[in-house]
Every structure is written in structure tokens, then in C-alpha cells.
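#dry-run=false #mode=assembly
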Amino acid sequence: MDDALSAEAEMVQERPGRLREFWFYFRENRGAVIGLWIFAIFAFLAFFGPLIAPHDATNQFREATLQPPVWQDGGTWTHILGTDPLGRDMLSRLIVGARYSFFVGVVVVSIAATGGIIIGLIAGFSPKWADSIIMRVMDIVLAFPSLLLALVLVAILGPSLTNAMIAIAIVLQPHYVRLTRASVLSELQKDYVVSARVAGAGIFRLMFVTVLPNCLAPIIVQAALSFSTAILDAAALGFLGMGAQPPTPEWGTMLAEAREFILRAWWVVTFPGLAILVTVLAINLMGDGLRDALDPKLKRS
Amino acid sequence: MLNYVLGRLLTFIPTFVGVTLISFSFIRALPGDPIQVMAGERGISDERYAELAKQFGYDRPIYVQFWEYLTGVLQGDLGNSFVTKRPVWDEFFALFPATLELSICAMIFAVLLGLPAGVIAAVNRGKFFDRALMSTALVGYSMPIFWWALLLIIVFSGNLQWTPVSGRIDLLYYFPDPTGFMIIDSLASGQKGAFTSALRHLILPTVVLGTIPLAVIARQTRSAMLEVLGEDYIRTARAKGMSPLRVNGVHALRNALIPVVTVIGLSVGTLLAGAILTETIFSWPGIGKWMVDSIFRRDYPVVQGGLLLIAVMVMIVNLTVDMLYGVINPKIRKR
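#status=ok
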């Protein structure tokens, strides 16, 4: 009892140190830091986009349709990245569009991670038969290619950004379940769990206070990686006409609208995709850095 | 080993029933009544509606419908398409070779570039080549492939005029297709220019579909190689004075291949998801485009059957990979 208490006291003291240790390792990875900066800019645009954008994202400048970017013949400083077929300012649309992708990432990861962690914990703690049933159900969901399943789900729910987010969250959920369950099962073997149980900790305390904090490292990495998957899938659904609907300046939807102009106006196609790529790349860089900083196996070597 | 195989096969059955149940119930949940959809804009009289409902079995209890569907599926009967009236099964297997051809080419592309890239990166760990290759791989891994496809079209079809924008072959060519693989059939037909035309149509979709697997394979090969390169037997081989090419290419790569093979096998799902986007953009007449079109046309039996067949295919491939894994890697078999 005393040992368990003092161990817990030590852990509490150790916490700020852990964070500093994490930052020490994270900083080592230059790509991850660059990714973090880009992500910070992306988050900033998501919150303050409409205030920064030079024009209203839906305003149609009818006298200036399909105007090229400023460095090309015919471009003007009023529309730095040119205008789309309806004369809307590309730069403003891109800036305002950041919030949709950011929102998609945050919502999808929150839903998928919360649901996945809870189901994973339940599976890890339940008797074998219940565990098998849960895992079989997850296998079934994983048997469908994610984009196809999301596409059919959106077709059922009706095309919109909200439904696209729900569909993507459902599709990503099983990964969290598997990850959480695997960590829980390996943690349950350890002495500290046994001692907590002997000390009389209830099942919920065991789940959320004793075991869960020690399973978080891989889940955090997975969260970073699925943030980028969510953005990519939402953009893909938007591109197929099953995500955000026009005139929403969501990047994937913008690409879909621009498709017929690809051979006449390269900029309407290039910039939205570039925005998706840079954002996803930044998040993946961050995810790699997170994994290296949190994975104890790599740290020691 | 036998127990392992049997155990895996047994888990296949409940998953199969579950997948069937999901694809069956999805379609029941789709908005709009299938019969109304079939009737189209003109509408339908009540008597005719009842007659059709009886014909398709929609008037019976849902569990009876599911049972009939399940037994039908096991006999290869997935119903008929509302639009073409042809059996879903036949349509699927008529279009499947196109997707298979594209996927195989994409995989070959990914493996041919990804394996050497991963090996070179691992051997030059931390140096310029490693950084350059791995940065490129990360970009590839983060690529929105629908945008990548559009970019390639702008450059290679628009500016350079090297490749066609859509389809599998120019319309001037017509020949029987015994294998369903355009590059084989065009070669067998002996028509002048047919083969080059098919090949030119194939290049861009292959690159687009192969990009993400390429990046995944390169990254996986690198990390597997790094693990193996630290082993004692590699040091021994080096100490014996073997050429670096032989040590890295034969001794190390052979053992690094095990996780890589798994990754290749497991990316079948990724390929099929990618095929949906790739085929839609390049108007490639495969199952990806067929599924998207059917979803938009509300062709319920096709969506239902296609979803099921694709899922079952992914399951079979994963199962095979699992078992092959046991064959390649004796460490697992013993357990």
C-alpha cells in the first residue's frame, strides 16, 4: 500500500519532467518542428481566416473571372493567386477553407478517438467471449476499404460535410479500438495494475485512471496520423461530390469545381491541392516526430 | 501450423456473415424506395408497385430477405442491376480485370521503385540520399492522389501531349478480349499501334495509383533494412570480405523482405480505395468507377453486391497474407 502510494507520488512529481523530456526529443527532429510551425499557421488561419482574407470568399468578381496569379500575364495584385471560373478570389477561398479542413480533423479525431478508446478499454477488460465479439465487429468494418465505406455511408446519410465527418470517424474508429485494446492487454499483465486492484480500485478507476494514461503514447501518435487521414478523406469525398457542397470553399470541393478548367487555368486546380498536400505533410511530419519522441523503444537506441 | 490455419479460417466465417449483413442493411438504410427509384420520374401505379415489391421480395420480413440474400450470395446470385438489368455478379467480373490490370501495374511500379529506394536510404542512413528519398516518400505518402492525377494530366496530357486523358485504349482499335487485360489482349490482337496505345493509357493511372504504396513500401523497406543491418550475421558477412552489394542486396534484403511482403499484401485495401479516385478521374472502366457511378445512380443491388464482393476480396487477400507470413517466417509458424 505504502509502496503504491509513494510510487504514485513519484509519478506526479515526474510529470513536468516528462513533458520537458518529450520536447527535448521532439526538438531533435527538425522536420517535426517545421511541421509544427506549419500546423500552427494552419490552426491560426482556421480561427482567424475570414479576418485575414483580402476578399469575401464567396464574392464573385464578375469582371475578373479566371484571372491568372499576379506573376503571370494578366494577373493583378487585387487577386494575388488569381480567380476561379466565377471570379471568386482564390487566395481568400484558400484561407477561409483552412477552417473546414481543421474542423474536419478535430471533430473526426475526437469522435473516433473517444469512441475507439472506450470500446478498446471495454474489450481489453471484458471476458474473452465479449472481447472476441467486439474485435470481430471491428474486423468487419476494417474489411471494407475506408474510402468506399465512407462513400456509401455518406450516400446513405446524404452528402454534406457533417455526414462526411461522421462517416470518416466511423471508418477510422477500429484503428483506435485495436490500438487501445492491445496496449490495455499488455498493461494488464503488469504489477502496478494488480496492486491497484488489490488496493480495491473499482473497474472504472482501473480503466481510466490506472491503465489508460499508460496506453496513451501510441494513441496520441495515431491521433496525429488520423488527423491527416481525415483531412485527405474529407477532401476526397468533397472531390467526388459527396463532402462539403459548393459554394463552401472546402479544398476538395474547390478541386471538384475546378476540374473542367484544368487545361485552361492551371491555378484553380494547383493551389487547393497544394494547400491539402502542405497541411497533410506538416501533420505527418509532426506525427513522425511524435512517434520518435514517445516511442521508448526507439528512444533508447 | 494446421491449428493456426484452421483458426484463421474459422474467424473468416463470422466476419463474412457480418460483412454480408452490413452491405445488406446499408442498402435498406439508403434514402428513397428502390422501387420508386426504378420507376423513375413517371411514377408508378399502386398495383404495379405491389407487384414489383412481391417480385423483389420487399414485402417479406427483413430477416427472411437477409436469409435469401445470404443463400443467394453463396450461390453467386447477387441480384440484377436496376439500370442495366444484368446480374451484378457478371458485371463485377466483366469490369474486374480492368481494375486488376491497373492495380497489378501500380503494385509493380511501387515495388520496383520502392524496394531499391528503401535499401539505398537504409544503407546511406542519415546521409543526403537517405534524407532526400525519405522526404520524397513522406510527400508521396501525404499526397491527395486525386490532385496528383490532375497535376499529371496538366503536365503530361495538356502541356506535353504525351498521354491521353481517359479510357483504356483509343477508340479506333477493336479486338476480342479473352483475358480482359488490355495490354495482353492488344498484343495478342496483332493490330499495329494497339499495344502502344494501351500502354500510353495505362501510364498515368498506374503512377497515380502506385504513389502511396510506393511511399509506404520505401519507408517500410528502410526501417526493416535498418533493423536487419544491425544483426550479427551482417557484420560477419562484412568481416568475411563480401561485397557490400551482396551483403546489402542478398543477405540483408532477404530478411528485411518479410515485413515488406506483409505491407504489400495489406495494401490491397488501399489500392481499391485509391482505384475509386483514380478510375473516376481517368474514366477507367473498372469496379471503382462502377461503384461510384452506381452510388450516384442509386443502383442498390450493384452498390450492395459490389461492396460485399470488394470486402470479401480484401478479406481473402488478408487471410492469404497471414498464412503466407507463416510460410515465409518460421518463427510465427511454431507458435
